[in-house]
């Protein structure tokens, strides 16, 4: 159990982490997401007592890390795969860590086998590939057979076989009742591995909920409804009925309707009572990546711009037309990733349920779209702005500080 | 900066601790417990770990190898060039002095590398995660390094002394055991000082440069200071206490002054103790 309360870290006048409070519970894999520079690694370092928080505190099982008796036997961490002395062999590296916490030397050979490095155990880690370095780091984290595990970007540089292995390892560790806290940028990986998500942006908590709730709350989950194409008046009738029931209805290009805010059975009931036949009623759920992009697009610090290549171009001969530059998807277009907003009318894009366990409809937005973000209810979240105006977000990104 | 951050870190503790004491059962007995017995760690574990570390990197082999080659090699060359009459009232370990003046730089380098290589590679984060008791790690490093440096330098000086005595021994020479101990102590302390400086500066090149400055500048600067009347006393003190001269005194090369370098050794011990204290204070205070 990791518990952070009001965790804040300032470096000079730059605030890396601000008023972060969350809990990581045993028995499940908790993903830790956020854009580059959002304070994930700083938070990890504070959990491990490497950095002293400016204010607030973080405890593991009730103790600050540096007060834990024999900490590596309770907490294992992979912070940075390159955090080894390259001149030392893999085995010596693990051996010196094992000796530091009174772990018998045979455990070193055991974890070397677990991560599959037994054949290169006596090779100097300088020559290791990125993936081998990750495996060595994971071995160091597993060395103490700890109850709490922290992994910062564990699949970074691993081959597909290694990624699968790490995924299964995390799940197995959590299934044994351990607390597993993983940060990653690979959304597809997180979607497969994590049960619970903690998302931060610019050092502040954006979301703390289960992965299913997160996707539902932050993406345009919708139902596609198609009425018989031969009878357009049925379509209008259904639109009126659904809107009256509180759903948002958008017409699609091909004549179907996109319905948000209503569960599928309710749509069916409404259609039935309005005496409208349905040709299609299908659920559409966004991916974790879409949900994540939507949530964090206002909190991204490092954003690419369109490469103008102005410095490389010859001055154009008089009368020549400059070539038309086609925008590349993802470059210089802040809102490119955003799927259509789930709610019209300026509600926050992630009107989150108050508690992760709170029941919500299987599709569409939960009951209170204007509710403040979980665990951060005391202060309004500066990023909780309507996605309909992402450009406005960019013009005042510093007002959070 | 450190004063305002204390109250906020302290105040929430009473809230969290009862929570842990009130409900350890549901959160922990249900959670995973390792079959490997948990031992209580102490300095002995850190010493074993540092011993593994220092012997498993090549920089140790290289620096100590060069040190031995310099001290023994130059020592034997000098011994071969001297005659029995040269050792009338000086110890037989004198040939080792010339090698030590150069060789001390090797021990300084190793001392710095023992800690700063961990900062340079990021290993220090792994180490301090494995042992949040940072002072224990630094203490173990100091002890292990000092022991290694002292044994190796005492061996080198003693070996040169033995060979020289067997070549030039005329039955009655001066006792040279003290010069072995004091000479080894001086260069080892210099290395320990380098380790403490490395811990404070956290940067290999910076710390080695600082230590070279500390050793060489007081040996060179007096030449200029003595030209000025007002700075003359400072220059003379520097001349008296600089590292090469201290070694010269320890080996009885100070023209029968007979002080034996005790004051110089004392000064180095004092400076080293101060640097170690500074290193310990900074160690707990800074982020890694």
List keywords for this structure.
heterodimer; A: 401 residues; alpha/beta; Rossmann fold; Alpha-Beta Plaits; 11 helices; disordered C terminus; B: 288 residues; mainly alpha; 14 helices; globular
Structure description:
The complex is a heterodimer of chains A (401) and B (288). Chain A is of the alpha/beta class and 401 residues long. Among the domains of chain A are: 2-74 and 146-216, Rossmann fold; 222-284, Alpha-Beta Plaits (2-Layer Sandwich). Chain A contains eleven helices and 13 strands. In chain A, a hairpin with a 2-residue loop joins strand 1 and strand 2. In chain A, helix 2 crosses helix 3 (105-115), helix 3 (105-115) packs across helix 4 (130-142) and helix 7 (211-218) crosses helix 10 (288-296). Chain B is mainly α and 288 residues long. Chain B contains 14 helices and no strands. The relative contact order of chain B is 0.11. The model of chain B is unreliable at 1-29 (pLDDT under 50). The chains are: A alpha/beta (401), B mainly alpha (288). Chains A and B meet through strand 1, strand 4 and helix 2 of A and helix 1, helix 2, helix 3, helix 4 and helix 6 of B.
User: What is the end-to-end distance of chain A?
Assistant: 30 Å
Q: How much helix, percentage-wise, in residues of chain B?
A: over 70%
Helicity range of chain A: 25-40%
Q: What's the oligomerization state?
A: heterodimer
Radius of gyration of chain B: 24 Å
Question: How would the global form of chain A be characterised?
Answer: globular
Spans where pLDDT lies below 50 across 5 or more residues of chain B: 1-29
Give the N-to-C terminal Cα separation of chain B. 17 Å
- Neighbour order of strands in the largest sheet of chain A: 5-6-7-3-8-9
């Amino acid at each position: 159990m990791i518990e952070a309360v009001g965790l804040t870290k300032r470096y000079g006048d730059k605030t890396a982490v601000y008023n972060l409070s969350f809990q990581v519970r045993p028995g499940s894999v908790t993903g830790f997401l956020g854009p580059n520079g959002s304070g994930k690694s700083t938070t990890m370092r504070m959990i491990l007592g490497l950095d002293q928080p400016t204010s607030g505190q973080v405890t593991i099982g009730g103790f600050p890390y540096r007060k834990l008796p024999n900490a590596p036997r309770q907490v294992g961490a992979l912070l940075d795969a390159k955090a080894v002395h390259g001149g030392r062999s893999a085995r010596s590296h693990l051996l010196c860590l094992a000796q530091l916490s009174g772990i018998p030397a045979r455990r070193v050979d055991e974890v070397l086998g677990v991560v599959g490095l037994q054949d290169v155990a006596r090779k100097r880690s300088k020559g290791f590939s990125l993936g081998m370095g990750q495996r060595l780091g994971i071995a160091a984290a597993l060395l103490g057979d700890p109850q709490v595990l922290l992994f910062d970007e564990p699949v970074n540089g691993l081959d597909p076989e290694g990624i699968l292995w790490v995924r299964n390892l995390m799940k197995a560790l959590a299934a044994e009742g351990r607390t597993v806290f993983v940060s990653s940028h690979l959304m597809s990986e997180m979607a497969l591995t994590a049960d619970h998500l903690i998302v931060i942006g610019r050092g502040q908590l954006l979301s703390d909920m289960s992965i299913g709730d997160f996707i539902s709350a932050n993406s345009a989950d919708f139902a596609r409804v198609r009425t018989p194409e031969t009878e357009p008046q049925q379509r209008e009738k259904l639109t009126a009925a659904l809107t009256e029931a509180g759903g948002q209805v958008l017409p699609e290009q091909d004549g179907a309707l996109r319905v948000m805010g209503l569960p599928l059975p309710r749509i069916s009931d409404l259609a039935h009572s309005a005496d409208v036949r349905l040709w299609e009623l299908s659920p559409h759920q966004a991916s974790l990546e879409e949900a994540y992009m939507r949530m964090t697009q206002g909190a991204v610090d490092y954003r690419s711009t369109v490469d103008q290549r102005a410095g490389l171009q010859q001055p154009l001969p008089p009368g020549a037309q400059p070539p038309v530059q086609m925008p590349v998807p993802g470059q210089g277009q802040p809102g490119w990733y955003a799927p259509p907003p789930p709610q019209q009318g300026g509600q926050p894009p992630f009107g989150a349920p108050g508690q992760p366990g709170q029941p919500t409809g299987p599709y569409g937005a939960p009951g209170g779209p204007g509710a403040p973000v979980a665990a951060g209810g005391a202060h309004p979240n500066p990023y909780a702005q309507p996605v309909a105006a992402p450009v406005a977000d960019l013009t005042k990104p510093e007002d959070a500080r | 900066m450190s004063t305002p951050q204390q109250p906020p870190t302290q105040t929430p503790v009473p809230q969290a601790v009862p929570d842990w004491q009130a409900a350890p059962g549901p959160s922990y007995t249900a959670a995973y417990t390792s079959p490997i017995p948990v031992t209580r760690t102490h300095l002995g574990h850190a010493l074993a770990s540092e011993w593994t570390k220092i012997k498993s990197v090549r920089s140790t082999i290289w620096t100590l190898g060069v040190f031995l080659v310099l001290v023994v090699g130059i020592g034997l060359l000098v011994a071969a060039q001297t005659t029995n009459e040269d050792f009338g009232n000086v110890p037989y370990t004198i040939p080792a002095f010339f090698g030590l003046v150069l060789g001390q730089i090797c021990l300084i380098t190793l001392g710095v590398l023992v800690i700063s290589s961990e900062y340079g590679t990021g290993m220090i984060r792994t180490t301090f995660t494995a042992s949040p008791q940072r002072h224990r790690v630094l203490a173990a490093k100091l002890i292990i390094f000092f022991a290694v440096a002292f044994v190796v330098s005492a061996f080198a000086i003693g070996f040169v002394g033995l060979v020289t005595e067997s070549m030039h021994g005329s039955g009655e020479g001066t006792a040279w055991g003290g010069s072995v101990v004091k000479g080894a102590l001086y260069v080892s302390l210099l290395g320990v000082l380098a380790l403490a400086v490395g811990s404070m500066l956290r940067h290999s090149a910076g710390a080695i440069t600082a230590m070279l400055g500390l050793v060489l500048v007081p040996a060179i600067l007096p030449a200029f200071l003595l030209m000025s009347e007002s700075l003359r006393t400072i220059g003379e003190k520097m001349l008296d206490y600089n590292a090469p001269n201290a070694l010269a005194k320890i080996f009885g090369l100070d023209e029968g002054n007979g002080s034996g370098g005790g004051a110089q050794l004392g000064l180095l011990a004092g400076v080293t103790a101060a640097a170690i204290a500074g290193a310990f204070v900074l160690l707990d205070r800074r982020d890694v």
